[in-house]
Amino acid sequence: MFACGTPHAAESLRLGECSVEVLQARVERRAFLDIVSLAVSLLGFIGLIFVVWQMKTGVFGTPRALYLLFIGMACAPFYVAFVRIPKIPFLLPPVIALFLLYPIGAPHGVVYSTDPIFNFSFTQDLLRTGFWAPGASNAFATTYSFYPIGNVFVGYVILNAPLPPDIGYLWIEPVLRLLAIPASVYAFGRRLFGPRTAAIGVLLYLGTPSILFNDAVQQGFGTIFFALSLLALFMLVQAVGLAAQRRAMVLFAVVSTGIVMTHHLSSYVFAFWVTALGFLMVPRRARKLLPVLRLIVLFAYFVVALLVYIDILTKAIFLIHESTLTAALRNLIAPETAASGSGSNLGRTFTQIEIGWLVATLIGLFVLAFSTAVRHRATRHNPFDLANGIVASFLVFVTLPLVVTPLNYVPLRINEYAGFIVMPFAAATLIRWARSDFWKSARRAPQVLRERPWIPRLVVVAIAGGIVMGGNLAPITLRGYFESFNSRATDSPLYLGVDSIRVSDWATDHFGDGRMWGDQLTNDVFAGFGFMPIEFGATRIFGGTVLNESAWCLLHVGDYVAVDYLMTILRPNFFHEGLWPTPMSAAQVGKFATDSHFGLVYKDATFTIYRVMIPSPYPPCR
Fold it and tell me: Quick check: 450 pLDDT over 70?
């Protein structure tokens, strides 16, 4: 006997078990739900298009909450999963829109923000020389040059498309992530729980609270290899035959090596992940049900590969990361010993309410995921699924305190990795809360939740929407559009315009081999898009109203100094020196024009560039 409204409804109708009227009512309700969700999504997209159009045409003042509301509305087809399995084609538009926000939101149609610009610089080095030379790139790109796989791929596509490099780099990685990441999250959710939970997992991942979410940086490629490596482990655990297990092991060996050669943080997080999984494989039940020996071999392979790579190539970078983390943890444990101003700087771009919303999103994801993990443990669920849920939840939990430190970017980046498992686990809790029978069996639940099934569903829709909107506060993709004028720095992507690209090309053709000194906008233009070397210490040159002996210790004949008009209007920041507390004075930026040691070599509406023509008036520095 088949139930009315099931895939065998036609057979039920033939047997007289349900009427045509009942079947028609069910179909109409399903169609009505789809129509409503698509209508809400359409309104959300219209709002998003209007907001982005306003921002890109220079009309500022749109409330960030309105932008987030439109994102929540655009994702409406996902909310159908709280009632039944949604139609996959209806889910594609919001996924495409959010994964391509970086190129869509480009203020001037080219790569923007410091990290993507210097990743692009490393890619340009590869295109220009045709070889990978670890450590040979400039400024921030020096670190990126030790992790070549993503940049080599992008360079290969640019060469063979062919595409203009600055435009090609803008689109290639976001498109690749669009093809890989949502499918991976859906695959995790489907393997762990089922299609409805998988859909809500993808929805929550669209609200990943990560500052670099979908930016064109090495972390983007790192998350792809991270997801594929984790999927290979799930395939190994669920494989029946030995041949299938061997194929999964080979796949893991290949894609996990990709993590090591793609991104440092991705490597460190995955090393912690597999090490923690190894400890959780110790209990007897896990040893009985899982191919523990094969898993341990793969875990050991990855850790050894990472340690060898660090020892051969990236030891200096690893030691810098280690010291930074140690200092931040020391300040967290003993804040009274920390230097003033060493706390979190989230307040520069967020209001207190937005900070609270963002932190609540992080905590909410942890609570929802941990709830399902606890339930799995009580029901003695698959030990490998449970172990991954525990590790992912622990990663979110243990990094949460870093939000109040200068390392606030760690919890605001770690979710791209933990989210592959946290989001499906959190989605499982929401799906469970959306079921009317869950509240009917809960003795202490409010009566209204037990008697009116639409109320729990409305509540979980609000929770899911709040998480998606709150998580989208974090990415830096469009953050510059919502900054107040006084809170902007000179290197805001809004000011990286036509003059910047033109002067970069002109400098490449006409300037010599001297170093360039300037603020971060100067660094982005001449070292990021161009190939001019920059060094630490620019505040010694720009900080005073005259050039003293300390400044002349840095300047050599043939060096260039760039002044942009924004330095007297907004606060500049300098290479590895942070944000200057106030805009520069006219005397600080004008001293080069009156100093006979400098010659004017270039001037346009944005930049004035001087070259050191005469040696220092001071004795040689020691």
Answer: no
How far is it, in rounded angstroms, from Cα 442 to Cα 444? 6
| Pairwise CA distance, residues 112 & 493, whole Å | 6
Residue 80's pLDDT band, with cuts at 50, 70 and 90, is: very high
Res 436 pLDDT > 80: no
Band (pLDDT 50/70/90 cuts) for residue 28 is: low
- DSSP E strands: which ranges in 163-317? none
The pair of structure tokens assigned to 232 is 């290979």
pLDDT at 341: 44
Instruction: Quote the Cα angle for 292-297-299, to 5°.
Output: 90
Residue 282 burial by CB count (10 A; 0-12/13-18/19+): exposed, middle or buried?
A: exposed
User: CA-based angle 605:607:609, to the nearest 5?
Assistant: 135
Contacts of 540 (CB under 8 A, 6+ apart): 550, 551, 553, 554
pLDDT of residue 501: 82
Query: What stretches of 472-519 show up as alpha helix (H) in DSSP?
Result: 479-482, 498-510
CA distances from 256 to 179, 239, 407, 498 (A): 19, 19, 26, 41
Contact call for residues 461 and 73 (beta carbons, < 8 A): no
Alpha-carbon distance of 98 to 197, in angstroms, equals: 20
C-alpha–C-alpha distance, residues 544 and 542, integer Å: 6
- The answer to whether 366 touches 397, Cβ cutoff 8 Å, is yes
**Helix-strand-coil split of the chain, %, nearest 5:** 65, 5, 30
Query: Which residues pair with residue 599 across a beta bridge?
Result: 611
- Give the C-alpha separation, 411 to 400, whole Å: 6
355: pLDDT confidence band, cut at 50, 70 and 90?
Answer: confident
Task: Report yes or no: 535 and 514 within 8 Å, Cβ to Cβ.
Answer: no
Q: Please, what is the average pLDDT of the chain?
A: 85
Confidence of residue 512 (pLDDT cuts 50, 70, 90): confident
Whether the bond into 148 is cis, omega within 30 of 0 = no
Residues in the chain, how many? 622
Q: Which parts of 324-462 are beta strand (E)?
A: none
CA–chain centroid gap for 108, Å, is 21
Return d(Cα 189, Cα 178) in angstroms, integer: 17
pLDDT band at 374 (very low <50, low <70, confident <90, very high): confident
Distance from C-alpha of 366 to C-alpha of 423, rounded to nearest angstrom? 9
Closest CA relative to residue 277, chosen from 367, 381, 395, 198: 395
- Average pLDDT of the residues in 218-238: 92
Cite the DSSP H helix spans in 130-161.
141-144, 149-160
Give the strand order in the sheet containing 607-612: 516-517, 560-564, 607-612, 598-603
Confidence bin at 429 (pLDDT 50/70/90): very high
Please tell me the pTM assigned to this model.
0.88
Q: Which residue has the tokens 């499982």?
A: 428
Does the pLDDT of residue 124 top 50, yes or no?
yes
Long-range contacts of 158-162 (CB under 8 A, 24+ apart): 158/123, 158/127, 159/127
Instruction: State residue 161's pLDDT score.
Output: 83
The three-state (H, E, C) secondary structure of 173-203, written as one string: HHHHHHHHHHHHHHHHHHHHCCHHHHHHHHH
Smallest CA-to-CA distance from 426 within 375, 472, 379 is with 375
